[in-house]
Here is the input.
Amino acid sequence: MTLHLETRAIHARAAGLNGSRPLSVPIYQTSVFAFDDAAACARALDDPSAGFAYSRYANPTTQALEAAAADLEGGAAALATSSGMGAINAVLLASLRPGDHVIAQRCLYGGTFSVFATLAARYNIDVSYISGRDAGEVTAALRPSSRLLFLETIANPTIAVSDLPALIAAGHEAALTCVVDNTFATPALCRPIEHGADIVVHSATKYLGGHDDVTLGLVVSASEQAHHLLWKHTADLGVAADPFAAWLTLRGLKTLTLRMERHCATAAHLANNLASHPGVKHVYWPGLPDHPDHAVARRILAGFGGMVAFDVAGGREAGLAFVTGLRLAALAPSLGGAETLVLHPASTSHRQMDAASLSAAGIGEGTIRVSAGLEHPDDLWADFEQALGGL
Here is the structure.
């Protein structure tokens, strides 16, 4: 029987116990597993499918989450890491060598941008940045040393939507490994492997966990071969997820599709109200017809997402005044939870970028990023309206 994603997200399976099985995956809060057979111990250390030896290599709770994530994304296998940045670093460090060249979307999460800057300075790995809207840019940026294309389904924080099918096709034509950060979309809205991605990464701290109480990353590979290479490197790197964090994320997956529907609806309410407010210069949400990626979003997304960005009139001072003037929405450096969170990227999440880099990425001094939560939309808009009125 073929099950819908909504159903599969709820039914992550635990191991059977004498004819029955627990409905909630148990937490195997152990660092090590004992053996009666030395050969079996050695096999488990070499291959996580052969058994469990040490939780840095594999753990039953973590493995249940990995299986669920791979299933939802349509991948062959997945790896859980200690954070989203752990997932990104694991992929980049396993895939690149000194002298390699990367093509990346210009507007990226600030932490990812910082990693690319470090790779360039420390390992002589060059990075060329593209808009993410034109496959021709990938071809134009190619070098003999090009190895990897890095994209975000929905960009952080400008909410640009990448034309994944066209960009990935251009990357594959040049034999690039195509990596997509799907954190903002989640598999409920987009599954990049269906568009040809080789590797998908998530900060599961965000929507997949969904309750602002877990820090965890995921790497989903389209092929078993890529997965095994990444597993060995990730184990050596030491960024394994904690079993309790994996259990919290499994719990979050059960309500993922329901939450994403509400996040998208609330984002629509805020975006439409912001678009008509005199104190707002511009609103970035792909559900608005004037968004430059509206047509792409309609083609590749199952919903327009719970993230909104907008530019307040008055620049940095006005932006900072807005985020500190809110009474219900919280100023916090994360997203994807039940509570509405706001951020001023230029001074926080993208503080690593200089003025020129911010401008090139489309991040203004007065840009505000909003993670629309699950509160009543009218309560949120009243809060936004009073904060805007105080500018």
Summary: The mean pLDDT is 95. The first strand starts at residue 77 and ends at 81.
